[in-house]
Amino acid sequence: xxxTQSSNNHILTEISNAMADAVEKASAATVLVDARRRFxxxxxxxxxxxxxxxxxxxxxxxxxxxxxPDGSEISASLAGRDSGSDLALxxxxxxxxxxxxxxxxxxRIGQLVLSLGRPNTNGIQASLGVVSAIAGPxxxxxxxxxxxxxxxxxxxxxxxxGGPLVNTSGQILGVNTSGLARGTxxxxxxxxxxxxxxxxxxxxxxxxxxxxxxxxxxxxSPGQQKELHREQTSGLLLVSVEDGSPAETSGLIVGDIIVxxxxxxxxxxxxxxxSLVGKVVGSxxxxxxxxxxxxxxxxxxxxERP
Amino acid sequence: MVVPLDTTTILAQSLxxxxxxxxxxxxVVRNGWQGAGAGVIWRPGGIIVTNNHVIxxxxxxxxxxxxxxxxxxxxxxxxxxxxxxxxxxxENLPVAMIADSHGVKVGQIVxxxxxxxxxxxxxxxxxxxGLGSVSTPGPRGSVEVIRTDAxxxxxxxGGPLVNVSGGVIxINTMVVGSDLGVxxxxxxxxNFVNEVIGNLVEVLV
Lengths: 306, 205
Hints:
- Helix content of chain A is 19%, strand content 40%.
- Chain A is α+β, with helices and mostly antiparallel strands.
- Chain A starts with a helix and ends with a strand.
- By secondary structure, chain B is of the alpha+beta class.
- Chain B has a domain of 91 residues: Trypsin-like serine proteases (Thrombin, subunit H, Beta Barrel).
- In chain B, the strands form two sheets. A six-stranded antiparallel β-barrel of chain B has the order 1-2-3-6-5-4. In chain B, strands 7-8-9-12-11-10 form a six-stranded antiparallel β-barrel.
- At the A-B interface, α1 and β8 of A face α1 and β8 of B.
């Protein structure tokens, strides 16, 4: 090679080494999860004694084995699971995992990423790609709703579910799973995944709210927007209210148009679902509606969906 | 890290020059029957390494990068690791730079060069996706492998997997039936070549 070519080649070498370093760093927090009949899958050290993985790879509640990067085997039990987002949290019998480092910047389309997995004891596995899409919300085929997901063109090898998607610094951008959409792998972005993991650590499951209404989106006219001091062009018209439901108890009636819950605009059914997750469940929550052309705020104690 | 504005241009150029560099030592291997594989000029003296299944009939013709075709002699076969050594009676063929595959790491950028689906000297890029071993029939028991996410297809068989310095770190093989590409590490290939060239010298003496 000529002198110029070899100096140019320096950048390629640097990038190659940087990616190997990224793999090495993130591999320290990527573990093997043996909790199903078929081959094992992967998991991420959420803390020294908690492993975040994909819910669909956890087929049993006990007799779960985790293999750490150094080869040591630790038994684990199920700390919590959320089939809606396909995440499960496992508690190690003794702590010893190296906590994963989370990316400080969110994923961007086109960014180089690495998918990691540890489905066997031969060492870490990785594939390279870019973030192809950032989308959502999407209804998963397991009945949940994911606010946001990432898609990459990195090859999802068998057993990669539950493993991390990382940036070129080895920081975690999300959790990979092939259990949310048929025939393809999606990535749950780390802010969402960590929020769910936090809930699972505290409550064992994700609390999803229950109002007891059926609704359909309707247009909010410019005049109504002015009345509401809101800019959204649609709201949710209540077409039925169940007897004895939190909605009925609080005074919501058929014909009301929901425009906001807890101050956040609600313009379509997906936003209604996402607004009913987490802290609002069981708490008195303000719901803004349009009734007879006038804005009105009711307080609803949101129930929990069984 | 301060990134120059033209990083992507430099990257593209260096990948391209890297490919040109490696292609000099790449050959097409035909068995006179069906299909074609790739091979690497491994040692001076016309020593070429390819996959054993590429020369399944025991006959081989190779075409070098300068489009010269030669009849090659099959001097050794290791079917259990799918390797074969060929020799052509041509002086001064451009020998590939062989890298030490002991030091490779998951995540490093690699290029696979071969003739996928008959497309001459095509390049696919990826990273080392895994290191491990697979069991083999025979006394060897198992062989180390390098896995890559670079796309491989029939015709990549026997071709080189190279690192970003242009060094050959493995011979691509066993493409059939799996999306996981597998390469036999160059240190395994070197051991095999050393055994055979050693034997060859004894025979000649």
